[in-house]
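Long-time lurker, finally posting.

We've been working with HAD-IIA family hydrolase (Cellulosimicrobium composti) and I want a structural starting point before designing mutants. I don't trust myself to interpret raw outputs, so I'm hoping someone here can both generate the structure tokens and explain anything notable. Sequence follows.
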Amino acid sequence: MSAGLLGSDVPLADRYDLALVDLDGVAYRGHEPIEHASEGLTAARTRGMRLVFVTNNASREPGSVAEQLSGLDIPTRAEEVMTAAQAAAALLRTRLEPGARVLVVGGAGLVTAVHDAGFVIVESADDEPEAVAQGFAPELGWAQLAEAAYAVERGAWHVASNLDLSLPTARGFAPGNGSLVGAVRAATGVEPDSAGKPSPTMYRLAIDRAGASAPLVIGDRLDTDLAGARAGGYPGLHVLTGVSTARDAVLAEPHLRPHYVGEDLRSLLEAHPLPTRSADGWWTCGDSAARVDDGALRLDVRGTATVDTVRAAASAAWASADEGRPVDPASVPDLPVGTH
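Top reply, 14 upvotes:
Generated this for you. Predicted structure of HAD-IIA family hydrolase:
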């Protein structure tokens, strides 16, 4: 698949049969709705697009996630939610037989997923677990992290639900599971395996479960959602309602680049024009154009910046970088597109 943007002359909801939708920063923000999320997803469903919500959060049960989404006018069933806890349990099954002992360091969602996969859950390293499954839970403390470290030191396989260093909350960014996993890694020197994004494991599981033939990944974070799309070979839509900004997309390295960019989830209902390159090096999309001169990004925008501006700027910057002429980040302005 191309390392650049893709174009679509029909709405994405008509081109793809399954949307793999991230949660925080895409469908909601903390406990608050994101503007146009319900509108965009409801209309996409009306067009025949199926939805599976794919989250690196391993602390919550799928039913709890579905209940929250339904309360935000996004009707969802538990089977339409794929969590990193479920992915971690699936990863454990690749090496361990049912009945193996697993030390679970995490919330109820991880406990349920590991139990449902057929493993025996233990709480102490002295129970000689064959693996440690670690996921985020706000109640985790030193004692649980210490048990994980003791078990890993003794040879237990360390499986992390995800490696997100930060976690968005209503008050800002707090330490995520990756930060807590880092404490165990620092104590043991052992690098864990991860089931969560940017690993494409969850995407593959969700696609197989849905029987989809044309999936589309939707996320707000380049380093998890869109990196996972690239790693799995799936097209990815970057919506500008969460963590990664339009400027981040323009400066993205190849393995982090989205295939489509949209202001919010209404972009599922829109065609996505592909920027074109002229002989003099300008990349044009709609009323915006961009080129790179001596490592500096130049923009020609009629009126205010739009998603087309982001598309043109990304195409110019990515092409220049791929040709061995990386763009000076200082020349890339903040592009006030999307809500954060």
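Before you design anything, note these points.
The chain has three domains: 12-56+198-269, 85-194, 276-331.
The first strand starts at residue 18 and ends at 21.
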